[in-house]
Design brief:
By secondary structure, this protein is an alpha/beta fold. 34% of the residues lie in helices and 27% in strands. The strands form two sheets. It has an eight-stranded mixed sheet, with helices on both faces. A five-stranded mixed sheet has the order 9-10-8-11-12, with helices on one face. α1 crosses α6, α2 runs parallel beside α3 and α4 runs parallel beside α5. The longest helix has 17 residues. The chain is elongated and about 60 Å long. The two termini are 33 Å apart.
């Protein structure tokens, strides 16, 4: 049985995780962390990680600052963590990598298995088109999302760019530039509106054809499922920095 501590338990993803975990018999939520202490059903909620009386795998869906705090706390107390928050800076990511020297740290800006398959397909398409097609990424999210572009859009762009030998320049906005699209541009566009859970499209645009690879999250349950799988994966793992690719390595061998 894997004990799980949810940081950001009162948020939308926290509630989705409680529901998903309640349906399983291989893990359980033993505590939550949020801005105010209290109780959610039988789950005690604390206002700070420092108040925790229990141990377990920490799943973080909070904020960049909260993610760094969780990683450092886990490193100091020998606890694995799964970091799912988006909008982390390079300094934040460096703090996670530093913590991974002491404990298992699982990091993904998108916990969906489907998105990570999309990323692998985008890598393959980049290799096959070999610079002959223009590439654009369009992401859509609900109006409450704070960061733009999404961390997932940047994950996709980084995977494509790595496959292309870092040949691309990311272009986020063209409204004040009147010029022909550069061959080495990789456009990233963000849409915010309503209750869109998450949609990502990668367009490979040729002279007379367009190939589109897309993924639509129909509920937050897909992210909760991935986060739980990640928590089970890092429980009792060796210290290190883990990603979805590590967890899905066996599945990815089919590509």
């Amino acid at each position: 049985m894997t004990d799980i501590i949810l940081q950001g338990i009162c948020g939308r993803m926290g509630r989705a995780l409680i529901e998903k975990i309640s349906q399983r018999d291989d893990c359980r939520v033993v505590a939550g962390i949020d801005q105010q202490a209290g109780q959610i059903g039988d789950i005690p909620v604390y206002a700070s990680l420092d108040d925790l009386p229990v141990r377990g795998v920490v799943i973080d869906f909070s904020s960049p600052a909260g993610s760094v705090s969780a990683a450092r706390y886990c490193a100091a107390h020998g606890m694995p963590c799964v970091i799912c928050s988006t909008g982390l800076s390079k300094e934040d990511e460096a703090a996670l990598e530093e913590a991974s020297a002491q404990v298992p740290v699982f990091r993904s800006a998108n916990m969906s298995v489907g998105i990570n398959v999309l990323i692998e397909l985008a890598r393959r398409a980049t290799r096959l088109f070999d610079g002959e097609f223009d590439i654009e990424i369009v992401e859509k999210h609900h109006h409450n999302k704070l960061d733009a572009p999404s961390g997932t859009a940047l994950m996709i762009a980084d995977a494509i760019n790595a496959e292309a030998g870092d040949a691309y320049e990311y272009i986020y906005d063209r409204h004040d530039v009147r010029r022909k699209r550069g061959k080495q541009e990789l456009g990233i566009s963000a849409v915010r509106g309503g209750g869109i859970v998450g949609e990502h499209e990668v367009l490979f645009c040729g002279p007379e054809e367009v190939v589109t690879i897309s993924h639509t999250a129909q509920s937050r349950g897909v992210f909760a499922d991935g986060a739980v799988q990640a928590a089970l994966f890092v429980d009792n793992a060796q210290p290190g920095y883990y990603t979805m690719t590590d967890m899905l390595r066996g599945k990815m061998q089919c590509f």
